[in-house]
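re: ur question from yesterday

yeah so i grabbed the chain u mentioned. its 350 aa long if i counted rite. heres the sequnce exactly as i have it in my notes:
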Amino acid sequence: MSLLQNPRAATVLRTGTWSLRCVPRTLLTCAVLAALTGCALILSLGTGSYALTPVEVVRTLAGSGPPGAEFIVMDLRLPRALVAVLVGFGMGLAGAVFQSLTRNPLGSPDITGFGNGASAGALVAIILFDAGAPQTALGAVCGGLATAAAVYVLAWKRGVHGYRLVLVGIGASAVLGSATSFLYVRADIGKAAQAASWTIGSLNARDWTDVRIAALGLAALLPVVLVYARRLTLLEMGDDTAAALGVPPERSRLALLGVGTGLTAMAVAAAGPIPFVAMAAPQLARRLTRAAGPNLLPAAWTGALLVSAADFATQRLTGSSLLPVGVVTGVAGGAYLAWLLRGERGAGRL
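ran it thru and got these structure tokens back, copy pasting raw so excuse formatting
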């Protein structure tokens, strides 16, 4: 193995035929974001009617906490906190994939309809089949993949252009919103209320089943995204350049769309459609790292921090955990979207 320094201060690790390019600022950003996410997780574990200090939370996680704290932390609060981290990580990663493919900051799964497709699939499982968590996850995956296939086919015209994919996705999102409203009308009052609370995007009453769904989804899809990271970077340069460098554009784009849709479906299945995280995380990560390219891992850790911080904020601001975390991210994300659109208009792109 050898270490090479290039003029842009990036470290290249080489071993045999494999190489890994590491930018120190990007690595430092990921480390800081991971540490802040850990702090938000510990603060969330200590928040509630039975308050615990951060030191008591750490001692409880180590098995030597105050009497009665182990049940509250390990069984009641830890699943919720872990789901927040895993879902935010997956949403940030999916947002980076979609925005890189479309080359558009608005090309996130909750804007382009892929998240709505996963939500519609999950709602079909909940309302029509009275499904549990595993069946709801399967419904979200099927709905997301079906939506991705439909959008891809409709956006195809000698390839898939980024803006065309976004516009077709927005149209698909409107259609899926109408279908979701129809499902509410047809459902009985109990299932409609259950589905409505879920579609806001909530971490309330999360358990270890939801943790397993999110963890298994990430374990299966994260390696695929990392393997395709170089192709994603080359696709940002244009299809002709990518093809000249040996990357099949459409085949790579289709595989990455499938992986991004799977990450979105995993997040939706575990916590419902938490809005705007997938859109904001990649943009914030790019500003932190100041690096070109998709910034996959920084975006993922930014998403994890955003959801964990939003969950902590809902509990501290309202004095309870009943307020869905999607309300906080929706309000903050709406303001961020307005700011982003203003920047796009000022740059002459709108």
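noticed a couple things. Strands lie at 2-5, 11-15, 18-22. also The first strand starts at residue 2 and ends at 5.
anyway ttyl
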